[in-house]
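A note from the maintainers: we've had questions about how concatenated examples are separated. There is no special marker in the raw files; a new sequence line simply starts the next protein. For clarity in this README we add a label.
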Amino acid sequence: MTPVLRANACTFSLKFRCGLIAAFLGTAAFSISAQSKEHPTGTVSFRPASAGRAIPSTPVIIDTDIGDDIDDAYALALAVRSPELRILGITTAFGDTALRAHVAARMLDTLNHPGIPIYVGVNSTRKFENFSQTEYARADTHILVMRDAIDFLLKTALRYPHQVTLIALGPMDNIGAAIDRDPSAFRLLKQVVLMGGSVRTGYGGGPPSAEWNILNNVPAARKLFSSGVPVSMMPLDSTQIRMGAVRDVILNQPDRLSVDLTELTRESNRPDPVLFDPVAVAAVINPKLCPTQPMHLEVDDKGFTLETPGRPNVNVCLTSDREGFLKLLAERLEPRVGASK
């Protein structure tokens, strides 16, 4: 359960400049140097990376099980390509979290953002782990330096109290571990936006299901729902959106991102993937795409998220704007001029 720092993210001549840029933007330059100065606790003004943009950015941490289904890769690409978000770090979750870090490292390089730090989360053996993108991960040439993902998550919450949004896209091993280690620090997160659960609709549009991310760590889900941190949940009800024609807009072009996504799609054997996780990212970018309503949910022993009487503990999106979401995805992931293979 140690995080990752890419030692080769910048050359020596760029390290100093990258460190200055990161400090100016209010982010810890963990991916640049083995040592980083402590940032004072207090209000920080976060701005998007592109100069001259007046869009205020939301500081986020992305917790992902990238490497299983293909939707995590699309979610990461959407987040990186969105100036509304300032990604402070990526934490890998579920199963072989070190190998997952290599998938993220390759993608960040392809997206021209190698300086975003990656941290390896709780490493666990899972009977039903489906690491489909092993070939892509093992072809990564980045040298990864380990650091503690849980420590990073908690220290970031302490440095920027009530400002950081945690976007949770996989089983909640890291979330459970963070709450166990320091529940007070965890409560300093602004909110957790998660893809998970099934309230009134299950897989394939059927009755409610035991959704994958909840099912694989029921105790952690229960801890999150009772943590006191505001939680917005994007369940199966609102996230079962297939790519359809948007796939050709994104993939049938000769740029680096489309080449990588095509390879990951082949390895995952999902030619027309369901974009569960990108919906959660889109909800942070533009909450109107997935409006929520307060509910009281309980997680039973089988992993079902049940509506029960009581004080609301989760904000749930039951219906999303499918067309608006796909439009956003296509606009952000369409090939960039000069981004050739």
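[label: protein 2]
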Amino acid sequence: MRTPCATCELRASCSTARKESRLPHHSPEKRPFDIDLAIVRLRDAVQPFPKAALFELAEAGFHSPFEVLVACLISIRTRDEVTLPCARRLFALARTPVTMSQLTLDDIDRAIRACTFHDVKARQIHDIAARLTTAYGGILPCDAELLQSFRGVGPKCAHLVLGIACHQPYIGVDIHVYRVTNRWGYVQGRTPEHTMRALEAVLPQQYWVEINRLLVPFGKHICTGTWPRCSTCAVGDMCQQVGVARHR
């Protein structure tokens, strides 16, 4: 039987070390996840970054249910840096269902042309405005079932409208809320919808709206999809780093 040479043993040792260096480090000293403490820390951590688009628009006065819904539709598959000017250009033309329904499809499309699927979204926005004008007196009620009856409106946009504009306790789960809360190990959800239901079971209700406001900038700038900044994370001592292979 051959005895491994020193060079072979060294190579095997180095290979093992390289593999281990790529694995996430889960310290046995991690503290249990304390959501109240995490929220306090996150409020400070996101201060230097731009606000999530829908919350920024609401703070600027575009906070009616219809305006938040329109802004959310524009934001789908679109970066906040594009969503904000698109929404502002459109709201400079119309801010209510009645005035929006009076615009042509080309008017709407030109205003939001920089966002993804702008032509589809222009039709959706115009159709929603027309339906609200004829069937609901030009007002969008704070009704989850009605919101999700509109083409292109899913739970995320419906819940953000209800939370931001209607001040009702709903969780808006976008890609950042989905990724970050699962990475923490706070919930285990296979999809955004599963994650939403899991969060409804464990997240204190006073944070249901705020969780989106905090985790959008946190997910964009700190807990990023690839190479998250774990070494400077405000909740790193509690995060289980689920699925993190490499980090900064």
